[in-house]
Each structure stands twice: as structure tokens, then as C-alpha cells.
Amino acid sequence: MEAFLAGLTVFVLAVFLGFEVISKVPPTLHTPLMSGANAISGVTLVGALYTAASAEADLAGLLGLLAVVLATVNVVGGYAVTDRMMKMFRKGK
Amino acid sequence: MKSMVVVLNLVAASLFIIGLKMQQRVPTARKGNLLSAVGMLLAVVVTLVGLEKLHWSFILAGLVTGSVIGLVFAYRVKMTAMPQMIAIFNGLGGGASAVVALSLVYHDVLDKGLTAIGPAMGMDAAVTVALSILIGGVTLTGSLVAFAKLQELVSGNPTLLPGRHLILVLVGLGSLAVGGYMAGFANGPEEIQAALWVLTGLSLVLGVLLVIPIGGADMPVVISLLNSYSGLAAAMTGFVIHNEMLIITGSLVGAAGIILTQIMCKAMNRSLANVMFGGFGATTTSSGGGSDYQNVKSAGLDEAAMILEGAQSVIFVPGYGLAVAQAQHALRDLAEALQRRGVQVRYAIHPVAGRMPGHMNVLLAEANVPYEQLVEMDQINPEFRNTDVVVVLGANDVVNPAANRDPKSPIYGMPILNVHEARTVLVVKRSLGSGFAGIKNELFEAPNALMVFSDAKAALTGILEELKNA
């Protein structure tokens, strides 16, 4: 229960932090931002690694493998496409 | 060792936050994204190092497969298709959280021969594992439906089932009940497995039910909201495996999604509830046909070129139609030709121009338009009355003055670009057909408006030719 309350504290504070950080982003960058935030949400990969580590071909292991694939597509694809977009923004001569 | 892992995870979380902060400004945005990616790499490495029994086969196979798929999608996707790309990535992320939760129940409870989730994982983990499946499942199928609608694999129109609100409430409450039962009461492997998979099924159905009644034009709001959900699902996973970094990061993304959702709703003058449950756009064809228009004046390309030639200041108003016609490059060519003649050129960007906020900025950046020339609605609106010529390209509802003056109009109150205040407005459009909202645009009848009936790309290249020959 103590661990849960500590986690809840972190959760609530991080939500406020997120509001602060994001609400200042100018509209110009909203699309890349959404894509970049989306890549970060693939952080669930960490949980996937934990369950795939046993590498046993039982249901738990196979689901772990599937989760690693899904989360990696989200992370790698998300960062790459965000970079592709941000690279295009340039100043005039 | 354990404390080292915690510290490094904290570093990773900080990198995410600093990275997001750097994405507030164009010059540092790319580095910010890179920093965030470094944070992710660190988080992954730290996790791998911290694992007790580590067999590489599944992890390597998963990481390589996922990376290849992700990179191929990321580099192949057209910029016009960005909203659906984000939707699909997001859906997979949410799906991953749900699958992690499913796997954890097997891994930590069933495979160990334990008979109840609560005592085995701790009551907090039992509840969050259920929430992770529910939110992750909704994100997965909801995003897939959003993708299908934007990609036009299915009709973008709202699908309104009879009694849909009741069905939604029943499925929603049902999944909460099954989740609660699984976490607190299911006893023995059969009961746990049954509850686990019924919950999974219900959450997948719920995702579909939530998104099918929403029209294609509102999909960006949905994607943003689902992005928030996938963050929440990741945070729930963090609670389950007691990983603070996951909780921080997940809730950051959750908050980011909520903020962007609010911004979009505001730009469309709609409440989130109206977007989610209103079935907006289901009755579109009632008005706005070409026959309703009177006193519409039109101009040929030569005339349009002459008007532009005499102007000192020009503002372009690009919409999604411009991107569909792949006319961004033609637009930049014309703009540069005008600038060489000493004309002041700017672009007015409505918050929901394109198919999601900021989408038009990306599309114009792709065509090498410098981002300082793109001006946001609030800054450009006072400028229209001192502008010689406004050229509207593939934008419709966002320049309809009815939003300012006709309280009976369905878009009344929606913030618009006040292009009608300019001296002359050239509207490049193939016909007098209506936009997303399916309503008549008073701008087309305005005394200072001239319709140029043409495809955007043909019009822009044609006008440029006329300018060169003049």
C-alpha cells in the first residue's frame, strides 16, 4: 500500500508537470509534439521487456514477445517520424 | 544495484521532461526529440541490466522486428497521412500495455500456481493490471477505427447504432465490473482466466463503440485523446511493476494528450462531450448545395494574376484541400515569385488547418516554406483589414463569416480567420460544394470575393505562368 501511495504521489505530480510543459508549446509544433509524446508512451516497452525476459514459449512469454514488438514499433517508429517532421522546419534566408 | 537502477531511471525520466520542454521551440525541437529518444534507450538498457534471469532470444527478436516495422512505416508515410500514422503507432503502444498486463497475470499469478490475483500481486497491482488491460484495449481498437476512417478504409461518416448510448454504458460498466471481479474476487485459475479474457474482449469492443459514432473530421480530437489513454495505460503498467519512471512518463503523456485535446476542441468551438457523443456531421447534406448561392463572382487565372500583381501585401490561407492536391510546392513557387516582386507574403494558419493541429505547418515545411512566414490565427486576424489580397486555397469552414455573425449557424462561435476583411479575397475552389460542416459559406457571396473555379495546383501554376508572361 505504501508503494502504491508513493506511486500515486508521483503520478499526480507528473500530471501537473505535463500540463505545464505542454500548454506552452506553440500551435506550429502541435503535430510533431503529438507524435513525439506518442513515441514516449511506448515506454511501456520496459514492462514488455520484463515479461519477455524468461523467453519461455508459454503464453506469458509469447505475450511478452508480442508486447515487445508492439511497443518497439511505437517507440522507434514514433521517434523516427517525429525527427523526419522536425528536420523539415527551417528558417528563411 | 537496485538503487543504481532507480537513479538511472530517474535520469531517463528527466531526459523525457527536458526533451519535451525543448520541443516548445522550433530551433531546439529536433534536439529535444533526440534527447527524449536517448532517455528511452537508457530506460531500456537499465531495465535489461536490472533483470534477474535474462534470456535474449525473445527480447532481441522483438526489438529487431519492432524496429524494422517502425522504421519502414516512419520513412514511407506521406506527410498528408500523418494523422493516421500517429493513430496507428499510438494504438500499438496502448495495445502493448494491455498485452504486458495480460502477460503479467500469467507470469506472476497463474504460472506460479497462485489462485487469486490480489494476494499474489498486491491489491494495488491487481486493480491497475485490470485498468491497464481496459485502457490499453480501448486505445488499440479505438485507434484502429480512427486509422480506418482517416485512411478512408471505412466511411468517415458517424455510424450511429440504435440505442448506442445505452450499449456504451452497459459495455463500459460491464468491463469495470469484470475488471473488479478479476482483481478482487476471482478464485482459481479458471475464474481468473475467464475474467481476464472477457475483460480483454469487452475493452476491445468498447474501443470500437467509442469511436464509430465520431465523424472523420473529428478524428484528430479522438487521436489526441487516445494518445492520452495510451500514456495512462503505460502509467498503470508502472503501478503494476512498481516502476516510478513508467508512472512519471505515462502520466506526462496522459497530460499532454488532454491538453492537446482541449486545444482542438476550443479551435472547433465544441465541447469534448459534444465531439465524443454528439454524432456531429451525421446530417450533412441538408444545405450548402451550389444552387443556394446568389451573386457569386468568378475570375479567370489571368485576372487573378493581375490582381496579385497589383498587390503590396498577400496572405495565403491554405487548407487540407491544398495538401490533397499536392500543391504545397506550387504555392511556395508562386509565393517566392511574388516576394521577388516586392510583395509582402504571409500564410495564415488556422489552429485546425489540415487534419490535425499543426498539420499544415508540417505540410508547408515539407515544401520548404520558412516557418516564420506562417502566422497563427490570433496574430494574423487584425492584419486582414490592411491586406490587399487574400488567397484561400482548399480552406472552407474556417473562413466562413457566418461563424461570427449568424447565431443560427451550426459553426456559430467557432474561431475563424477574418479573410472577408481584406480588400480582395480570391477563393480557389473546384466548385461551390460545402466543407466538413456541410454548410453554406457566406464568404463566396461577399462583394469583395472572387471565385477561381479550379484545382489548387492547376490554379497556382497557371497564375505563376501568367505572372511570368506579364
Key descriptive features of the protein:
heterodimer, A: 93 residues, mainly alpha, 4 helices, 75% helix, 0% strand, B: 470 residues, alpha/beta, Rossmann fold, 3 domains, 18 helices, 6 strands, 7% strand, elongated
Amount of beta strand of chain A: under 5%
Arithmetic mean of pLDDT of chain B: 88
* Largest sheet: number of strands, sense, barrel closure of chain A: none
Alpha carbon gap, first and last residue of chain A = 59 Å
Identify the quaternary structure here.
heterodimer
Please provide the ordered H/E string of secondary-structure elements of chain B.
Answer: HHHHHHHHHHHHEHHEHEHEHEEH
How many individual helices of chain A?
4
**Poorly predicted tracts of residues of chain B:** 283-290
Strand content bin of chain B: 5-15%
Please report the total strand number of chain A as a whole number.
Answer: 0
Largest sheet of chain B: 6 strands, parallel
Could you please describe the fold and organization of this structure?
The complex is a heterodimer of chains A (93) and B (470). Chain A has helices spanning 2-22, 30-40, 45-52, 59-88. By secondary structure, chain A is mainly alpha-helical. Chain A has a domain at 27-88. In chain A, helix 2 (30-40) packs antiparallel against helix 4 and helix 3 runs antiparallel to helix 4. Chain B has 18 helices and 6 strands. Chain B has a 6-stranded parallel sheet with strand order 3-2-1-4-5-6. In chain B, helix 15 (359-366) links the parallel strand 2 and strand 3. In chain B, helix 6 (123-150) runs parallel beside helix 8 (189-211). Classes of the chains: A mainly alpha (93), B alpha/beta (470). At the A-B interface, helix 1, helix 2, helix 3 and helix 4 of A face helix 1, helix 2, helix 3, helix 4 and helix 9 of B.
